[in-house]
C-alpha cells in the first residue's frame, strides 16, 4: 500500500512510500493527484531526510538509558560516567535494554542513522532491529554527546528508490530546526515504517 507523507511547512517535499522504499518525492499536490488512493499522513512542520547522530558509541554503549521505573532513582536523561559504567556492568541484559531505550530516544529525536564504531553486540542488535543506518563518523566532533547534537547533521536529499528513512520536525524551517534542536521531532520513518510519533 502506498503512503503519502506531507508536512504543512514543506509541501514541496512530500514523500510517497511504497513498502520500505521511496516511490517518489515532489510537491504534495502533484503526488496526491497522481496517487489518489494512497494513505495520507499529514504532519505539522517540515519533512527532512532525518538526522545522523555521530555519537553512536557514546550514547548506546557508554551511556545508560534509565527504564521509566527507575526514574525516581536515576532520572529520565541518559546517565554517563562512573555511574553509567556501574549500571552497564550488571550484564548483557542491562546493556541490551539500555541500548534499546537509547535507540528509541534517538528515533524520538529524528535520528535515522548513527555513526561511530559500535563494538558491543547489544548496541549493534538494537541499531539493526530498529533499521537505523550505520554511517561514517565526521572527522571532528564538537561534542558533547547528545540526542540533539550541536550542530545537527542532516542527511542528503531524499530520492526515489532510496530506503524510506526520514523525519518530520514541528518547526517552520530548517533555520528554526537548527536553533530549537531535534526535540521538535513529531515523526520518524525507517524502512517505510512509522517508528516514532509524538503523542
Strand-residue proportion: 25-35%
Low-confidence stretches: none
Q: Please compute the radius of gyration using only Cα atoms.
A: 17 Å
Helix- and strand-based class?
alpha/beta
Number of strands: 12
Main beta sheet: strand number and arrangement? 4 strands, mixed
Q: What number is the mean pLDDT?
A: 96
Distance between the termini: 24 Å
Query: Secondary-structure element sequence?
Result: EEEHEEEHHHHEHEEEHEE
Largest beta sheet: strand ordering: 3-2-1-4
Share of helix, binned: 25-40%
What general form does the structure show?
A: elongated
Number of H/I helices: 7
Task: From the structure above, extract its key features.
single chain, about 200 residues, alpha/beta, four-stranded mixed beta sheet, four-stranded antiparallel beta sheet, 7 helices, 12 strands, about 25% strand
Amino acid at each position: 500500500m502506498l503512503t503519502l507523507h506531507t508536512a504543512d511547512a514543506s509541501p514541496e517535499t512530500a514523500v510517497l512510500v511504497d513498502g520500505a522504499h521511496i516511490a517518489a518525492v515532489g510537491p504534495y499536490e502533484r503526488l496526491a493527484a497522481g496517487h489518489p488512493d494512497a494513505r495520507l499522513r499529514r504532519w505539522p512542520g517540515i519533512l527532512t531526510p532525518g538526522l545522523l547522530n555521530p555519537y553512536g558509541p557514546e550514547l548506546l554503549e557508554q551511556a545508560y538509558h534509565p527504564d521509566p521505573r527507575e526514574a525516581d532513582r536515576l532520572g529520565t536523561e541518559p546517565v554517563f560516567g562512573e555511574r553509567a559504567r556501574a549500571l552497564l556492568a550488571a550484564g548483557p541484559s542491562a546493556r541490551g535494554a539500555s541500548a534499546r531505550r537509547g535507540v528509541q530516544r534517538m528515533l524520538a529525536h529524528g535520528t535515522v542513522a548513527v555513526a561511530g564504531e559500535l563494538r558491543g553486540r547489544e548496541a549493534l542488535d538494537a541499531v539493526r532491529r530498529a533499521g537505523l543506518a550505520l554511517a561514517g563518523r565526521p572527522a571532528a566532533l564538537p561534542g558533547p554527546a547528545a540526542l540533539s547534537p550541536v550542530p545537527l547533521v542532516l542527511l542528503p536529499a531524499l530520492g526515489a528508490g532510496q530506503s524510506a528513512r526520514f523525519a518530520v520536525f514541528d518547526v517552520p524551517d530548517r533555520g528554526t530546526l537548527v536553533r530549537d534542536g531535534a526535540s521538535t521531532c513529531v515523526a520518524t520513518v525507517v524502512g517505510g515504517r512509522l517508528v516514532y510519533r509524538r503523542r
